[in-house]
Amino acid sequence: MTDHFEPLIIGFTCNWCSYRAADMAGTGRVKYPPNIRLVRLMCSGRLDPTFVLKALSSGADGALITGCHPGECHYIEQNYKALRRVHLLKRILKPLGIDPQRVKLVWASAAEGVYLAKEITNFVEEIRALGPLNWPVHTHVSKVKPRQLAEVPR
Amino acid sequence: MTETTDKNGDHRIGVYVCHCGSNIAGVVNVYETAKWAQEHLADQGVVVAKEYKFMCSSLGQKLIEEDIKNEKLDRVVVAACSPHLHEKTFRGAASRAGLNPYLVEMASVREQVSWVTSDNALATEKAKAMISGAVARVREHQPLDPIQVPINPSTLIVGGGIAGIQAALEIANSGFHVYIVEREPSIGGHMAQFDKTFPTLDCAACILTPRMSEVGMHPNIELLTWSEVENVEGYLGNYSVTVRKKARYVDTSLCTSCGICEQKCPRKVIDEKFNAGIGYRKAIYTPFEQAVPKYPVLDRDNCTYFEKGTCKACEKFCGPGAIKFDDQDEVVTLNVGNVILATGYDMFDARRIPRYGYGYLPNVFTSLEFERMCNAAGPTNGAIVMRDGKTPPKTVGIIHCVGSRDHKYNTYCSSICCMQSLKFAHLVKERTGADVFNFYIDMRTAAKDYDEFYQKVLEEGTNLIRGKVAEVTDGGLFDGLDGKLIIQVEDTLIGRQRRIPVDMVILAIALEPRHDATYVAHQFGISTDVHGWFTEKHPKLDPVATMTDGIFIAGCASGPKDIPASVSQGSAAAARVVSYIQQKELALEPVRASINAEQCSGCRICNGLCPFNAISFDAEKMLSEVNQALCQGCGTCVAACPAGAITGTGFTNQQILAQIEGLMCVPVHLEAAQPAVV
């Protein structure tokens, strides 16, 4: 028996592309780990960096921000604003003692359900490797038999 | 308890968990989830939590409606499918029961949980977390009213091929005004280039040109040919589209379409467009006899006068004096309520597959070249001849799937090539008596009377060889095969390599998205798939609508289609547009940004962020303001405002922060996972 850590991730999705990609992953029965929970925004440009900090401070170990591919934004160019904000946010995280790798930006179009599922799976593993964030209080470190690790689909 | 909303959680929230048959219930323990919500979310205001087999059924909706009335619910959470599917359904149920529809929130536990999670216990946990998030969010919802917008009854159709023509006629015949913007000098599209149409073999021009002239003469249709869309602004019901009418150098108000200018023009140019490069046109030309409109266009790049400053033969002979060498591009603005994009397709460039020899082996033709060659009004007057222009071929090889169903080029099936190639086989046999070899991967003849046509071509004695052609080489390398082309292929039905000498090769080239499809999609605010075809709102249930309200698609713009399918889509898109116009006014989602004047410091950070120029600065009041009609609700300004003065209705900071908190209430417990069944 070892202390086992399961990451908890909040994903921010754009209503027009990545949320629909998540729908498509569902329709295609593409499996990914249940460690991510999605929040729908109208656009990745709606992402207030506060949302990410809120997620991390309320127990999330990472945040995945998804939007339309550059040049494909439903609102013309707002995903570029998300890109800038994520870069700035990562610079702020470091002095706070948070590894900037806990925040990741992924572009996924409405057609890329399989791709989004793959990116989610990868990100869960990346966060698993980084370990729990524990910022400020983190409670969900639990004990589990190592065998059950294999339960999480890869 | 009261129905009023106050900070102490005096809400009365109902949670409804859908089984979706076994789609959700087969993975998520819906009974446990509903029970959990009732117990654990009671402090959040959940007073009722129920599960039901099909929440979206009329009985399921009735259940919610009755609870809203009997339990005096003021918020509803439905844990079912994606809100993109049934949000409207449940909002409808709420408003029938007297609850503001925007007080309903959905948790997508089917698409995001049961369909993507293999472990039942973990899925149940995630479903609980999502319900918890939705409950926390819905507590912050405010009653909203949809924004009513008037619908401008005019429609813009981009592309005058058969799909656009069909849509235009349907709408115009319903009594509404239509603009058609066509890039080429005439409407007609690819269909006008064809000779015969499968499977009935009626001549394309015979069935198309009456429609074209009907468009040309229709009082409700305004044609803007030789024009391109420059800019699009606005939203459903109120689009403002800027169109550049390229200089024609012909005054259409004076031109009588006599054709003398074309006769007298001394400059012959290879016609790359309409004749696919195998015929000529003049520098001033109408692309074909039955062109609509009939007015010619002067090709400035190839005109002797524009090159050398002398000639003006056309002007000299033009009786009414319609030639206008100083003609300028004209930019017009069209105000329309809806747009139909029927922009069609481009043909695959066969030079991209050098092993098939197109471009350097003279007798390798593309399907479009062959269509022009067969056409009685084409460059050879319908004679099927080799590149020398006189010798008819004795053997012809037709290669299917050139650039389609190929991981190197396009993975999709171009859907029309099998039938087109069979049609070619028939035409070659009928007109030259030549031996025909068709090389196919799979034969796809799935539509009304298509397979009968296939059988007929088989009976005519066409040789069908199942196999992907490896290469086409010059026969001159072999004794006695000078002037022939050798097709190397593995005949997969007999399991042998074969080398078949032929005189002529026709490549059934793929249909590809227009080279500028992604640019056009961007202009109109719609999306394309990985190949570049426009994406439908729903591939099965809403194939002519797009994610952007008021922008519709028809024909090959959304993927390869044959003529019957394109025509059906034209009609379908027209029906959708007419139904919008008939409603006169439509309700839009009230997802908009608004600025609280008291909090705004006038810093103007938001001003430059809006791509729709919806935010203006009032210099007198030193405040920024959002124009609700222009705002599209993306929320970028909301996130940017340092004072938090901007509210994004439907996606407020409070709602999203509450949802995040709610989602975090249920941790991921791997011990919940069931032991693996080996």
Describe this structure in words.
The complex is a heterodimer of chains A (154) and B (678). Chain A is α/β, with parallel strands linked by helices and 154 residues long. Chain A has a single domain (2-141), classed as Rossmann fold (3-Layer(aba) Sandwich), CATH 3.40.50. Chain A is 34% helix and 19% strand. A four-stranded parallel sheet of chain A has the order 3-2-4-5, with helices on both faces. In chain A, strands 1-6 form a two-stranded antiparallel ribbon. By secondary structure, chain B is of the alpha/beta class. Chain B has five domains: 13-146, Rossmann fold (3-Layer(aba) Sandwich), CATH 3.40.50; 158-244 and 335-344 and 515-586, FAD/NAD(P)-binding domain (3-Layer(bba) Sandwich), CATH 3.50.50; 247-328, no CATH class; 346-512, FAD/NAD(P)-binding domain (3-Layer(bba) Sandwich), CATH 3.50.50; 593-649, Alpha-Beta Plaits (2-Layer Sandwich), CATH 3.30.70. Helix content of chain B is 27%, strand content 23%. Chain B has 17 helices and 34 strands. In chain B, the strands form twelve sheets. In chain B, strands 10-7-6-18-29 form a five-stranded parallel sheet, covered by helices on one side. A five-stranded parallel sheet of chain B has the order 20-27-21-22-23. In chain B, helix 1 links the parallel strand 1 (13-18) and strand 2 (46-52). The longest helix of chain B is centred in the last third of the chain and has 21 residues, at 563-583. The model of chain B is unreliable at 1-7 and 672-678 (pLDDT under 50). Chains A and B meet through helix 1, strand 3, helix 2, helix 3 and strand 6 of A and helix 4, helix 5, helix 16 and helix 17 of B.
